């Protein structure tokens, strides 16, 4: 053991056993013990597999002394004969000492061996077998990635097929649908991965009617079968191991299974036992034996991408030249497979994976080389430093340099690939997976010189050929002689470094898929990454929604009315929903339309044959419920115009028409928020036309009547269906209209609690955050420290705290040891102002954000424990020990998209009160457009430094007039941009994650010039963003993120925007996804070719660009023309360059060229904004009635009513004017004093109001 590079202890159990636990102990009375180890298992003692826990962790915890016994129970038992303990860490003061004990039991095994040309047929007693329920179970092992394990079919179109395909298990199942039989429309359900690893895998299929559960090892898929039937009808027989062709024994339709099966049961019938006892129900095709004699193909694993290699000597070749054959599998897109030095010198041959393709390169003297890619069928000749084409069946792939490879030949898909390399007849031929070979023509015969290096090499000749290969190799032949890897392991053959023998330690990191919300998983040998494009989410695991949670949230960041996508549960399971946000009123309304916007006329309906209309909204039922429950109030208008059409039966009061709520329950009230009252709005308001009835329509008159109501009981909204049942009498008619669902307010934004005792806290149920969790909230305090949030497990924990007056700390432990992520602010955080905190942890990384400071990231270990296991309650504002509690206010606490109701829980908790004192703690938005509300001793002020707007409440547009020579250049300073980008670069996180590349751009403009340059952002790395108006006046957005590629160009508006009108542009990028909104149109999504970040931003320029930039020709033309017109409220991320130009003219950050005049063009926004026009009752009724020439009586009534209303309004206006003038004179003397008190009311008065609720309470944070 002392001389072994990787010592191990092997245990032979003498027979197959089911192992459930292992225990270890150190050497008796010594300082020798093993503190951690790996556990490998094998059936034969040759090919081994590493045991991994359910969370993918393969390392076992060992001993801390020599005497104590440490037992590790296996989360899933293994059936094996051999166990191997591989020490990883041991006592640094001693040496390795190991005593082991294995726990388990024996089990009975029925085995069958299929040689790839055989099968077992289970024949039914009758012509066909029809089953409603099926249970099939088996275990199998194989070294081939393809093969049919089970098949059965029926004449009516039923079939069931279970087969290995590319190392996965596919199940095809169809019930009574002949169209899908052996057609291209067959769809498989796939489970598992890397199942061709020569180790046992268990399969369990359960079917009841159309519901199916397919389980492979510990991975389960639930699905519903195709077809119309509920039973599976199979004719004559079931086939195991292949699909034999009827009438042709030994001939099969598909590739047969080659491997072993064990304990094969079909609906309780032991198939292998029947075959072994030669029962007549079983017919054997080919050679099926009843012991597993499959050869074990021994592999080795290359562990390091920088230092792994295997050096093997070459054997003499009788025919001259040399040949190499081997098999490999990997996930990595790049890696060195083979390096051979050649004679005559200094030629060398390199076989490598590059960009997922296989390339063979012959390096000659100097820089000359010949290169061929797999499956290109290209022959090349090298002579006197020139590369000459000889033959080419695919000439378009020939280029100077690297040849392209067909997409179908990706070799980093985790499957075994065979490679054959041969030099003979003045050719080097490369064959991959039996495909047609590629060749390099030689001028002279080449011989190998020295050793063959596999996977990498230690010599200086190939050190630059990085990275080394990470993956598995097996069946290595040199000059047609097999190489025994056991001899290499024992040091008797060649040399090696960073290799693991007797096992292929590959794992599928995308099984299960840890990318959330439909993100696509891709992987390398040591990590995985998620492609979030098109999902509406971002982050390392597609956890974070790119949309705001409500229209209220869009208003707070400065958005105007328009169509938006909102995600009401943030990172939760619900997807984004498209809504209209109406921000023209003081309240922000969220509007969700449905499929029936026009009034509907009904005639001829009765209770027996009612008129039914179902309403489909632009959101799912779950999303609707989330929007309604998260709003302060919701309402939906119901309009019912009637003529001899009643809503209630006048005799017994039973409803004749009704509507269904969102749960499908029948409701018969037609207005208000009192669901138990079967009345209309006129009854609640006591203004029905006939007070003997509760509804106007129940008077049952021959003239038109109207019952209009606004439904506002949130638990019943929205209306999902309406039923009209009384329009079948002579002269009966009804016209109804259901308005859109309208909600306002966001209950979570200002949901707050105040903590005024250090021992107080709020408690909630345990966090459900095993794989991912995001925590966000606002706080304000005057205390120097305190715990915001804590949740404990047996060993795991998660905590967010104010660790010092200027630092927030996020700490957790998922079993890999405590992780601490701290963010320090250059300003104190205990300044009694609101501060924002967001902490996130997932299986890839952890992050922490405080206010607008750059994000801090910390990468998770690739093979560490991924699951956070918590057991205690969640403590908010304190800890379980009632120490280090938080003193201050917390609001808007959200965890994984779920908002916590702090106010309700605070009502029943001593030491905590609902709400938070202060002007900046209310639900009214005192500061707009990203403005920050700051408490003062006698009021508040708005900090507009982060906003593109000005004024006392950050709601005044900042506008500037430009001419063609004008420009404003904002130079980014180190604390903002460079620091932000460097922090992103410095974090050792995979660049494939799209979570950090993002920009937010917003501005308004008025111009008649075209072409014109609106805005450019450039970096020190020649990257740029440009927003221009083209020659036809259309908007163009240019993104040049990778200097070696052409820029991406998008034209979201093809119409002419140089029309002298005000236009508002919003651009938002997350990774590859680009979202653009023009005016109030719906957001348009585009996809960039790269998700690269802007590295080291240099400057942002508005108007003419005088600096020579590496722009495209069209961008350069617009840049030289400049901009003539008005720009308003320009915002780039958290910088407002136009505002900085006006307020900091002497600053070194701002450079102004040409005339620059402050303007008021932004004020036009209100007059040119378009609001959503609700379909009101009057408009729809007028359209319906005046368009009908037969309703002349209604026209007369409408005219009279209109005249009366007009006269009344005029009279009311005159009276209001007189009263206003009289009261204005009375108030003129005191208006200044009242205004002063309304804005600067003493802050301590607010405190006094809170103190009246709890006498003798001490405030620590004001």
UniProtKB/TrEMBL annotation:
Subcellular location: Membrane
Transmembrane segments annotated in the record for this chain: 1194-1220
Extent of the signal sequence: none
Main location: membrane
Bilayer topology: Single-pass type I membrane protein
EGF-like domain segment(s): 506-543, 917-955
Domain F5/8 type C positions: 1-105
Record's keyword terms, sorted: Disulfide bond, EGF-like domain, Membrane, Repeat, Signal, Transmembrane, Transmembrane helix
Pfam families named among the record's database cross-references: EGF, F5_F8_type_C, Laminin_G_2
Laminin G domain sequence ranges: 111-292, 299-504, 751-916, 975-1161
All copies of domain Fibrinogen C-terminal, residue ranges: 542-594
One GO cellular component, as annotated: membrane
Disulfide-bond pairs as recorded: 889-916
Transmembrane listed as a keyword: yes
NCBIfam families, alphabetized: GGGWT_bact
Family from the record: Belongs to the neurexin family.
Name of the protein: Contactin associated protein-like 5a
Native source species: Dicentrarchus labrax (European seabass)
Gene: LOC127365473
């Amino acid at each position: 053991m002392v001389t072994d590079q990787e010592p191990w202890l092997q245990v032979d159990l003498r027979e197959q056993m089911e192992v459930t636990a292992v225990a270890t102990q150190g050497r008796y009375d010594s300082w020798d013990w093993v503190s951690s180890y790996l556990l490998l298992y094998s059936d034969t003692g040759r090919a081994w597999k590493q045991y991994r826990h359910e969370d993918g962790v393969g390392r076992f915890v060992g001993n801390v002394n020599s005497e104590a016994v440490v037992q590790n129970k296996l989360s899933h038992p293994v059936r094996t004969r051999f166990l191997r303990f591989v020490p990883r860490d041991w006592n640094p003061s001693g040496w390795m000492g190991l005593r082991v004990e294995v726990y388990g039991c024996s089990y009975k095994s029925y085995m069958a061996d299929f040689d790839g040309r055989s099968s077992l047929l289970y024949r039914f007693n009758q012509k066909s077998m029809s089953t409603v329920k099926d249970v099939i179970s088996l275990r199998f092992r194989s070294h081939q990635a393809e093969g049919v394990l089970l098949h059965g079919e029926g004449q009516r179109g039923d079939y069931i097929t279970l087969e290995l395909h590319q190392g996965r298990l596919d199940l095809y199942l169809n019930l009574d649908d002949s169209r899908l039989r052996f057609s291209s429309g067959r769809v498989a359900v796939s489970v598992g991965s890397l199942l061709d690893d020569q180790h046992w895998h268990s399969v369990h299929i359960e079917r009841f009617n159309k519901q199916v559960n397919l389980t492979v090892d510990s991975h389960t898929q639930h699905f519903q079968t195709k077809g119309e039937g509920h039973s599976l009808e199979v004719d004559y027989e079931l086939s195991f191991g292949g699909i034999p062709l009827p009438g042709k024994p030994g001939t099969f339709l598909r590739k047969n299974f080659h491997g072993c099966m064990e304990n094969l049961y079909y609906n309780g019938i032991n198939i292998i036992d029947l075959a072994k006892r030669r029962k007549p129900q079983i017919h054997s095709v080919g050679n099926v034996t009843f012991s597993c004699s499959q050869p074990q193909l021994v592999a080795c694993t290359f562990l390091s991408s920088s230092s792994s290699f295997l050096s093997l000597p070459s054997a003499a070749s009788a025919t001259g030249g040399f040949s190499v054959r081997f098999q490999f599998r990997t996930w990595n897109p790049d890696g060195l497979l083979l390096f051979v030095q050649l004679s005559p010198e200094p030629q060398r041959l390199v076989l490598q994976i590059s960009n997922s393709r296989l390339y063979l390169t012959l390096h000659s003297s100097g820089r000359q080389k010949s290169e061929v890619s797999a499956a290109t069928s290209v022959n090349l000749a090298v002579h006197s430093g020139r590369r000459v084409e000889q033959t080419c069946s695919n000439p378009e792939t020939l280029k100077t340099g690297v040849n392209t490879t067909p997409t179908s030949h990706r070799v980093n898909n985790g499957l075994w690939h065979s490679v054959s390399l041969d030099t003979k007849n003045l050719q080097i031929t490369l064959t991959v997976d039996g495909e047609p070979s590629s060749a390099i023509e030689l001028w002279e015969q080449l011989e190998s010189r020295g050793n063959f290096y596999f996977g990498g090499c230690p010599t200086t000749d190939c050190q630059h050929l990085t990275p080394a290969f990470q993956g598995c190799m097996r069946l290595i032949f040199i000059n047609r002689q097999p190489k025994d890897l056991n001899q290499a392991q024992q040091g008797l053959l060649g040399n090696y470094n960073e290799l693991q023998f007797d096992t292929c330690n590959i794992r599928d990191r995308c099984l299960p898929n840890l990318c959330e919300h439909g993100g696509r998983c891709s992987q390398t040998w040591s990590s995985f990454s998620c492609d979030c494009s098109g999902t509406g989410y971002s982050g390392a695991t597609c956890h974070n929604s790119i949309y705001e949670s409500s229209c209220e949230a869009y208003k707070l960041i400065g958005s105007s009315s328009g169509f938006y996508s909102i995600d009401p549960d943030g990172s939760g399971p619900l997807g984004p929903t498209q809504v209209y946000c109406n921000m023209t009123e003081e309240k922000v309304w969220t509007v969700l339309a449905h499929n029936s916007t026009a009034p509907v006329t009904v005639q001829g309906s009765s209770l027996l044959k009612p008129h039914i209309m179902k309403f489909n909204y632009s959101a799912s039922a779950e999303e609707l419920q989330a929007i309604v429950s998260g709003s302060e109030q919701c309402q939906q208008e119901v309009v019912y115009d009637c003529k001899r059409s009643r809503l209630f039966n006048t005799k017994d009061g039973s409803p004749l028409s009704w509507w269904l709520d969102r749960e499908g329950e029948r409701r018969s009230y037609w207005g208000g928020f009192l669901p138990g009252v079967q009345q209309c709005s006129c009854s609640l308001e006591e203004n029905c036309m006939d007070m003997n009835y509760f509804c106007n329509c129940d008077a049952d008159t021959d003239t038109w009547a109207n019952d209009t109501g606004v439904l506002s009981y949130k638990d019943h909204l929205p209306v999902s269906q309406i039923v009209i049942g009384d329009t079948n009498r002579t002269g009966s008619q009804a016209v109804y209209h259901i308005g859109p669902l309208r909600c306002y307010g966001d209950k979570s934004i200002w949901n707050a609690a105040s903590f005024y005792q250090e021992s107080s806290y709020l408690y909630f149920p345990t966090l459900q955050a095993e794989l991912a969790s995001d925590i966000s909230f606002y706080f304000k305090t005057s205390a120097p420290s305190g715990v915001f949030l804590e949740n404990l497990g047996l060993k795991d924990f998660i905590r967010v705290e104010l660790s010092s007056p200027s630092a927030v700390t996020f700490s957790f432990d998922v079993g890999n040891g405590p992780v601490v992520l701290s963010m320090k602010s250059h300003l104190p955080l205990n300044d009694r102002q609101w501060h924002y905190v967001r902490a996130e942890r997932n299986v890839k990384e952890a992050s922490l954000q405080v206010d607008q400071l750059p994000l801090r990231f910390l990468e998770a270990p690739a093979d560490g424990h991924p699951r956070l296991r918590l057991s205690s309650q969640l403590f908010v504002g304190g800890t379980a020990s009632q120490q280090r509690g938080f003193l201050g206010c917390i609001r808007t606490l959200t965890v994984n998209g779920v908002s916590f109701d702090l106010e309700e829980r605070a009502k029943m908790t001593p030491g905590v009160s609902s709400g938070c004192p202060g002007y900046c703690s209310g639900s009214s938005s005192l500061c707009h457009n990203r403005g920050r509300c700051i408490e003062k001793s006698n009021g508040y002020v708005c900090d507009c430094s982060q906003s593109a707007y000005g004024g006392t409440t950050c709601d005044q547009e900042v506008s500037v007039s430009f001419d063609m020579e004008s420009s404003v250049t904002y130079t980014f300073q180190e604390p903002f941009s460079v620091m932000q980008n460097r922090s992103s670069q410095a974090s050792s996180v995979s660049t494939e994650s799209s979570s950090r590349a993002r920009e937010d751009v917003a501005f308004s403009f008025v111009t008649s010039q075209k072409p014109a340059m609106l805005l450019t952002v450039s970096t020190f790395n020649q990257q740029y963003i440009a927003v221009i108006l083209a020659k036809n006046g259309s908007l163009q957005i240019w993104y040049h993120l990778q200097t070696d590629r052409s820029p991406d160009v998008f034209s979201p508006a093809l119409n002419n925007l140089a029309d002298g009108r005000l236009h508002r542009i919003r651009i938002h990028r997350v990774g590859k996804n680009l979202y653009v909104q023009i005016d109030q149109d719906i957001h348009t999504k585009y996809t960039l070719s790269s998700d690269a970040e802007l590295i080291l931003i240099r400057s942002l320029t508005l108007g003419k660009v005088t600096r020579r930039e590496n722009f495209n020709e069209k961008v350069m033309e617009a840049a030289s023309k400049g901009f003539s017109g008005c720009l308003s409220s320009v915002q780039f991320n958290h910088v407002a360059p136009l505002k900085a130009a006006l307020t900091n003219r002497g600053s070194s950050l701002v450079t102004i060229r040409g005339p620059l005049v402050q303007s008021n063009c932004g004020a036009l926004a209100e007059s040119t904004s378009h609001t959503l026009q609700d379909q009101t009752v009057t408009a729809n009724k007028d359209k319906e009635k005046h368009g009908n020439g037969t309703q002349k009586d209604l026209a007369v009534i409408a005219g009279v009513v209109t005249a009366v209303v007009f006269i009344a309004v005029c009279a009311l206006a005159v009276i209001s004017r007189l009263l206003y003038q009289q009261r204005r004179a009375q108030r003129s003397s005191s208006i200044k004093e009242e205004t002063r008190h309304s804005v600067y009311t003493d802050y301590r008065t607010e405190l006094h109001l809170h103190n009246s609720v709890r006498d003798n309470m001490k405030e620590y944070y004001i």
